[in-house]
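Encode chain A's predicted structure.
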Amino acid sequence: MIVVTGASKGLGRAICERLLSKKNSILGLARNIDGLCYPACVCDVGSYVEVKKVAKKIREERGRITALINAAGVASMNLALTTPSSSVQRIIQTNLIGTINCCQLLTAPMLINKEGVIINFSTIAVPLGLKGESVYVASKAGVEGFTRSFAREVSEYNVRVNCIAPGPIQTNLLKGITPEQIQKIVNQQIINRQFTPEAVCDLVEILLDSRTSSISGQVLHVGGV
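Encoded structure for chain A:
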């Protein structure tokens, strides 16, 4: 079974729908699961207690987890000096702490069975150091560092950990960003075009495939930097 966080919208939802279309067994995690057409549990990944409860429920009712995709994330376009403390806490708690919580609490079946794949999510804003995204960049830079180190920690159990870092993707995370701002970011990519969620889903499928068993601890940029 593949667990996908952030499953109610954006990339998380697109990934769930793609995996489901390929007959994969999936379980989505999200704060709001109303209207989803696939199995899902209510869970705020930023809460250690909630993730622990879900992990227990999965063990008792759902069976073995073979892959974990940490797609839950929030963003806020704001200068660091004017970002409210509440926004700082929310971004770090969801993006970084949420990823760590899920990796700590949901990967035991992979380690026991010595087989598994973990895919975390960062952003092209990290290497580009985009103005107005300092806190978001900090949270995702933490995810990248965690990915590299965690990959080494679990490699002896035949578990691979990688990170996908997209450029601007056509999802709700771009709400509030002008087309001009988006194009400015796209122009800094090696491939100067905006990608759709389908491109990210393609990369997820590739990383889940056993033919990429030699790839771990890497950050893959959609669009290139």
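The first strand starts at residue 2 and ends at 5.
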